[in-house]
Design brief:
The structure is a single chain. This protein has 14 helices and no strands. Helix 4 packs antiparallel against helix 10, helix 5 crosses helix 9 and helix 8 runs antiparallel to helix 12. Helix content is 76%, strand content 0%. By secondary structure, the chain is an all-alpha fold. The N and C termini lie far apart (80 Å). Its main location: membrane. InterPro entries: TRIC_channel. It holds the Pfam family TRIC. It is found in: Endomembrane system. It is a multi-pass membrane protein.
């Protein structure tokens, strides 16, 4: 592709308007997440506890903004002030849970449709990460960690509210903590937030902002589609294992086990000789 045409495409991606189409895609996948998390009893639960079902879905949809606002000392419920977005999310929730013959859910789960929604959601995720980093940079210009944290929460807030979202539905899973077992979206948002911080606050990245932004969009979309089509869920795992082995005691723990087994074998051999 011609470099100028590629740059023009990148500029167009950075200027995409998220409402309403990207918001719809985001809401659909959030509603699907709640329904699939409910399991086989999702339909019965939605009939018996519609308020709980709606609240948990809205929490997933607006989790990033609510968490970020809470940490930045802003009104937690501010993301709900946009009535149009709230109505769109509610309409999507209704379609996924309550359409006759479950048509809405079946169409949303249809693979080609889901691929389109997933692609749009990842573009939406990149925008949220960038907005989070930019907003935090205005409040705390030199606090890089805060920028990365807010960008990550904006991009994957639903992962960090999973415990409370399930609690609304009457399920207590204290081990479902994103800090204990971070998912790939969380790790990807950390990487994206770090790149945006380096792009805004340092001279380490000399490429135009639109190209950096477009590169992160491609990164998000590529691995999401790889997850859906090829089953590649977390490409960071090999690097994490290597890092843990080198710097977090993995090698020394393994060495200690080997030496410990050797010492045990020697003790057993000595005891046999004495017998």
């Amino acid at each position: 592709m011609d470099p100028e045409a590629f740059l023009d495409l990148a500029n167009q991606v950075t200027k995409l308007k998220m409402f309403p189409y990207f918001d719809i895609a985001h809401s659909v996948l959030c509603a699907l997440h709640v329904r699939e998390d409910l399991g086989a009893g999702a339909q019965a639960f939605s009939r018996k506890h519609p308020m709980s079902c709606w609240l948990s879905t809205m929490l997933v949809v607006f989790a990033g903004g609510m968490l970020s606002n809470g940490l930045l000392g802003e009104p937690i419920l501010a993301p709900l002030k946009n009535t149009q977005q709230l109505l769109v999310a509610t309409a999507v929730w209704y379609v996924v849970f309550y359409t006759p013959f479950d048509i809405g859910y079946k169409i949303s789960k249809f693979l080609p449709v889901k691929l389109v929604f997933a692609t749009m959601k990842e573009i939406y995720r990149c925008k949220k990460v960038y907005d989070g980093v930019t907003h935090a940079a205005k409040l705390y210009p030199n606090a890089y960690i805060i920028m990365i944290l807010i960008g990550t929460l904006k991009g994957n807030g639903a992962g960090f509210t999973k415990l409370f979202e399930r609690l609304i539905r009457g399920v207590w899973t204290p081990t479902a903590m994103e800090f204990m077992q971070p998912s790939f979206p969380t790790k990807a948002c950390i990487v994206a937030s770090t790149i945006f911080v380096l792009d805004q606050k340092t001279d380490l990245i000399s490429a135009p902002h639109s190209l950096v932004y477009f590169g992160i969009v491609i990164f998000f979309v590529y691995f999401k589609l790889s997850s859906l089509l090829l089953g590649i869920h977390d490409p960071f795992v090999p690097f994490e294992n290597l890092f843990c082995a080198l710097f977090l005691g993995g090698i020394w723990d393994s060495l200690a086990k080997v030496l410990g087994r050797g010492a045990v074998k020697e003790d057993k051999a000595d005891s046999k000789k004495k017998d």
